[in-house]
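#structure-requests
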Amino acid sequence: HGGSTADRNTVNSPQAIKAAILIQRWYRCYMARLEMRRQYALSIFQSIEYAEEQAQLQLSSFFTFMLDHFIHLNETDKDNKKQGSPSGSDIQLLEYEQMIEVPDSYHGPRLSFPLTVADTNSLLRAFKDQQQLHARYVLQLLHETKKVLKQLPNIIHLSTSYSKEITICGDLHGKLDDLLLIFYKNGLPSEENPYLFNGDFVDRGKHSIEILIILFAFLLVYPNHLHLNRGNHEDYIMNLRYGFTKEVMNKYRSHGKKIVNLLQDVYSWLPLATVIDSKVLIVHGGISDTTDLDFLNLFKRNKMKSVLRPPKSSTERNYDLERSDFVEYSPVTRVKRCPSKVCTPRVHLELTAKEWKQVVDILWSDPKNQNGCTPNKVRGGGCYFGPDVTARLLKRYNLKMLIRSHECKQEGYEISHDGKVITIFSASNYYEDGSNRGAYLKLNPDLIPRFVQYQVTKSTRKQTLHQRVSVVEWSALKSLREKLYCRRSELIAAFQQYDHRKRGRRISATEWASAMESVLHLALPWRTLRSRLVQLAPDGSVEYLSSFNDLEIEPPIKEVQPALVETLYRYRADLEIIFNIIDKDHSGLISIEEFRQTWKLFNSHLKIDIDDESIDNLARSIDVNKDGSIDFNEFLEAFHVVNKFKN
């Protein structure tokens, strides 16, 4: 016992207590530093994501022009007569499906309609085993889903009185593992276990089509207990940029085009909002100071094929809607060779500016802490709405709460506006393994939300917290360095404006931060990040050219000028959308002439300072085998930024 007493005296000694306090302080500081690194990594990812969305929206008019003028190229009169419309009539579609034979060699699920619980179970098993549903069943499923969605109102009204709780899930973005984990933890959808999925089912992740198939299958089996809101990514032009179109074409090559076209119609029939117990409003993005739920509930929502195709008058003209960065562009006069029947813009179902704006606001808006309603210039569409805007809308419609998604949150959810706005985001590891948790919420009859968090763990399972944070941080900084490289010329010019005394290519940290923000507009804490992005001189100044030290682009074509390489990299996502529009069969091949003409059109629209001769030289260089075609997928892969010195 004497030894035990001595141990207790040692433990209780002042030195031991001081040591424990020091260790505790060190640990708290260490954890705080890790948390700060994780938070700024998340802010980098989010800033870059929103900048890309802004670019997509600002180019919406250009994409609209491309779709209007090139969508019917290479389609024969026979094809047009057969299809009639992008998705075809119901009768023609059924005939088309019946023509698709399912071979005996196919071992995946074989669906029969109407679907049963056994069908949903077979789909879940198949996708867990990485099997693929045959194109015939995909088309039939989409066709049946469209019929069900058409019967629904714009705003769904649900009640918790028929069940104990309703489960609400946010963005999934093609992350099948997250959906399967939700079902494992929370149970499958059923009459006793209703679900609401709040948009953005597709894009970014690799299994978007599987997620749609699962959700639509459960919708068909439980139409009163599985509910879907439209998100801003349920949009075929968004899918061209963010990967879903490419996923479908890769998985369903011969029938992919038909699936993509039919999905346009399915998207347009998705409900816009849900109200639970007449007290909780659920929309994908948010609201504005002009959001009118009565108006939203009445208009024909299927007119909104794409938010990125705003309404326009019969004569194309420039216009600027209130709280919008969308500006119409009309380069028709430059396309002399385009036949009149092709150059005639498509006639839409008379979507009005008010209808368009109402939908943009609920799909694209984000909450802010300050009062008021201002344009969402970070994303480029929708608005930032403050607590006062929330309070007024809730009071006007006698509501208690707004639930929305649309934003990645580190913990999977966030509560704002004095508890009246909840953000729920269900895609874990959204930017990188370990970057964020996912979450869903359960709403009981007392309307008290209960959050359930999770994180799909694979490669991160055996890593320490420090290792996981380092991976996320490195990935975020790599993405940011790529942005620096593709704006290299502009950044150097901005740096040199401050280096008027030619101080050995050095400027102050404040000047460097100002130059970075003036070019990139990412609203990042540049002074905090400078030690991770540039070399610092002994006096604390920034050696600004070191911003590009560990980056390079290795183009496969020696003749390409550095300025053109930089430009191609900067606009590669936009070019991919344009080429996907031209490449009707999604073969990855387009003609040299199409490449040349499209790039020149894009060049003139963005006022990019690349001369025609450089474009012609590039086009000839890309066509290595001189067959008159460009393999654009390989071309895109070739122009990418690499780190010369990987940490």
